[in-house]
Amino acid sequence: MASVLVGGAAAGALPAQAQAAAPNRNAPGSFADLAEKLLPAVVNISSSQNAPQRQQGPRPEIPQFPPGSPFEDFFRDFFDRQQQEQPQRKSTSLGSGFVIDATNGYVVTNNHVVQDADEITVILQDDTNIKAELVGRDSKTDLALLKIKTSHPLVAVPFGDSDAMRVGDWVLAIGNPFGLGGSVTAGIISARQRNIDAGPYDDFLQTDASINRGNSGGPMFNLNGEVIGINTAIFSPSGGSVGIGFAIPSNLAKQVVAQLKDYGKTRRGWLGVRIQAVTPEIAESLGLPGHKGALVASVTPDGPAAKAGIQAGDVVIKFDGKEIDEMRRLPRVVAETSIDKAVPVEVWRKGKSQTVQVKVGELEAAEEQGLLAAGPEDKQQPGDKAPAQKPVESLGMKMTAITPELRQQYEIKPDMKGVVITDVTSNSTAAEKGLRAGDVIIEVGQEEVRKPEDVAAKVQKAKEQNKKSVLLLVDRKGDLRFVAIPLS
């Protein structure tokens, strides 16, 4: 008979060694002792932004009076008073944070809590108000570091290991919902490694502990009293908690906070590639065992990857000895790598793996220089005007060579070479994969194509080789991506 939970204890007791292995994973009879210990380290954040009153239009003209008229001075004084700048109003936001260094007064919160703030105030548990200095902030992970100076004794909490948390583990969330002051909620880890499209390094912990507006920037604790997450976002159609909250894992936050403390900004590693996910169809067309890794769609000229010889069409399967089991793991692994460090990168290229050495660059420096991953650098030869041809049909698409008229119609770059799609049959596999008129096919099976017959021939060759899909490199107004089209 299955075990039944009665008053928090299971009828079927766990083996002694299992209880010893995870003593802090079982819910205590009360969270009161833990909450009492942690509450002094959690602070409220009040940030305000000055917003000048909007002027009510141009100054009206003063009526004309005879020289020396007493009305002249009266109206001049009246209009001058009206045009004086109105008092500034303040827009205020409330959030949460926590002290990580009691000696130096460092406080961690969310970037969106203090973004664009003219004044930041940290409010301790005993309602002590302290003006805070913004040390640095990072919009990509939504983290900010503050510093306060006070003779008031502070209580700090340590970061824990978020990777050690398992789905089902108990957690405490402490914050300032709706500006009410310190508030404690309990729940479990509902899921790990959630991607909610909040930024390039999404790796959120999900919890059912109640998180509401004002909890942003507050800590999520394990039962050892260690911060394993920073509460950041909720999923809610109504705006209130529905039991789906998200926290930045501490292992991601620790490095960002350390960089903000040392440099006042982040200094992330940079590879210089634009990537996409490896689907089962793409993996099959590349001969890659298992659909893992990050497919390189384009490479930034003169970037670290380009200098190391990484090419569009390569699949990064290992970076600095770390497995890249899915696409979105690569940006985080690269970002966490020391700048100027030479690392081995294992890529899958044309049916086999090979390793190249890459000297990691700095992402922030690349952003300042406006460097972006770009497509092939082939230059159109002067006067290269493809003659009009009869469209060729294949894979449910009509294709033709690029003509000046088609370049203008579909906004195709002057230096772009390939085959343009002019029509896609509805309900075809090409339509299901999102291809549409105006897309330019640059490669088929990782080989360049210049005319529609090239595409048809390579598709036919893939069929004769009993391949299940064929890989296309497609450009859509400068956006390069690989598309695997099933051949069945």
From TrEMBL:
<keyword id="KW-0346">Stress response</keyword>
<dbReference type="GO" id="GO:0008233">
    <property type="term" value="F:peptidase activity"/>
</dbReference>
<keyword id="KW-0720">Serine protease</keyword>
<feature type="region of interest" description="Disordered">
    <location>
        <begin position="47"/>
        <end position="67"/>
    </location>
</feature>
<keyword id="KW-0732">Signal</keyword>
<dbReference type="InterPro" id="IPR009003">
    <property type="entry name" value="Peptidase_S1_PA"/>
</dbReference>
<dbReference type="Pfam" id="PF13365">
    <property type="entry name" value="Trypsin_2"/>
</dbReference>
<dbReference type="InterPro" id="IPR001940">
    <property type="entry name" value="Peptidase_S1C"/>
</dbReference>
<keyword id="KW-0574">Periplasm</keyword>
<comment type="similarity">
    <text>Belongs to the peptidase S1C family.</text>
</comment>
<keyword id="KW-0378">Hydrolase</keyword>
<dbReference type="InterPro" id="IPR011782">
    <property type="entry name" value="Pept_S1C_Do"/>
</dbReference>
<dbReference type="InterPro" id="IPR036034">
    <property type="entry name" value="PDZ_sf"/>
</dbReference>
<dbReference type="GO" id="GO:0006508">
    <property type="term" value="P:proteolysis"/>
</dbReference>
<feature type="compositionally biased region" description="Polar residues">
    <location>
        <begin position="47"/>
        <end position="56"/>
    </location>
</feature>
<feature type="domain" description="PDZ">
    <location>
        <begin position="260"/>
        <end position="327"/>
    </location>
</feature>
<feature type="domain" description="PDZ">
    <location>
        <begin position="395"/>
        <end position="450"/>
    </location>
</feature>
<dbReference type="InterPro" id="IPR041489">
    <property type="entry name" value="PDZ_6"/>
</dbReference>
<keyword id="KW-0645">Protease</keyword>
<protein>
    <recommendedName>
        <fullName>Probable periplasmic serine endoprotease DegP-like</fullName>
        <ecNumber>3.4.21.107</ecNumber>
    </recommendedName>
</protein>
<dbReference type="Pfam" id="PF17820">
    <property type="entry name" value="PDZ_6"/>
</dbReference>
<dbReference type="InterPro" id="IPR001478">
    <property type="entry name" value="PDZ"/>
</dbReference>
<feature type="signal peptide">
    <location>
        <begin position="1"/>
        <end position="20"/>
    </location>
</feature>
<dbReference type="Pfam" id="PF13180">
    <property type="entry name" value="PDZ_2"/>
</dbReference>
<keyword id="KW-0677">Repeat</keyword>
